[in-house]
Design brief:
One of its GO terms (molecular function) is acyltransferase activity. By secondary structure, the protein is of the alpha+beta class. It is about 25% helix and about 25% strand. The protein has a 7-stranded mixed beta sheet with strand order 1-2-3-4-5-7-6, with helices on both faces. The chain is globular and about 40 Å long.
Length: about 190
């Protein structure tokens, strides 16, 4: 198995990991934290994918994709925090005024899980942010301890995986997802 993580640039690759089986479905497309909630609610069905395609054409940093033997199998959303709702989120604090990047979603396609791809995606997202000049990367994973997490709700990642990648606990948050508190983890790139 050969895994390569690289910046998302091809819409069909992004669609393979984030897109719905039915074009009319209102799946996230990893837009929930990227655009204002009013706009997020307005985008329905195919308009969601079209919006992502436009973001790709504009060169907006969206994230990275993991390719296993050339097939897109995983995704990590990473972008400047200022370009996300985390810039205004009242439940997740800012620890300072650095123009950090946020890493908020990790997704591995069914059939490819359990191979360490989430670790490769975190590392690839960090390298992409570093190459774009980010001074630090923040993540907001679940602090689930030993408790099981429903895979659908594990998209922000797990604290343990970010610790393995060198991130440290920077702050507690008041955000809770699927019954688990989220923590602010940070990796300084300076």
């Amino acid at each position: 198995m050969t895994v390569e993580v690289r910046p998302a640039s091809e819409f069909e690759d992004v669609r393979a990991v984030l897109g719905p089986k039915s074009p009319q479905a209102n799946v996230c497309w990893c837009l929930s934290y990227r655009i204002p909630s009013t706009r997020n609610r307005e985008l329905r069905g195919p308009a969601r994918g079209e919006y992502v395609a436009e973001l790709l054409r504009s060169g907006t940093p969206l994230g990275v994709l993991a390719h296993e033997d050339g097939e897109p199998v995983g995704w990590a959303a990473v972008a400047p925090r200022a370009d996300t709702s985390f810039a205004r989120n009242r439940k997740i604090p800012h620890v300072d005024d650095l123009p950090v990047w946020s890493l908020w979603c990790i997704r591995v396609r069914p059939g490819h899980r359990g191979k360490g791809l989430s670790h490769a995606l975190i590392a690839g997202a960090v390298e992409y942010a570093r190459a774009q000049g980010a001074p630090a990367v923040e993540a907001y994973p679940l602090d689930n301890g030993d408790a099981r997490v429903d895979l659908t709700m594990a998209y922000p990642g797990l604290r343990e995986n970010f610790e393995r990648a060198g991130f440290t606990h920077a702050a507690d948050t008041t955000s809770v997802l699927a019954g688990h508190p989220r923590v602010l983890m940070r990796l300084d790139l300076g």
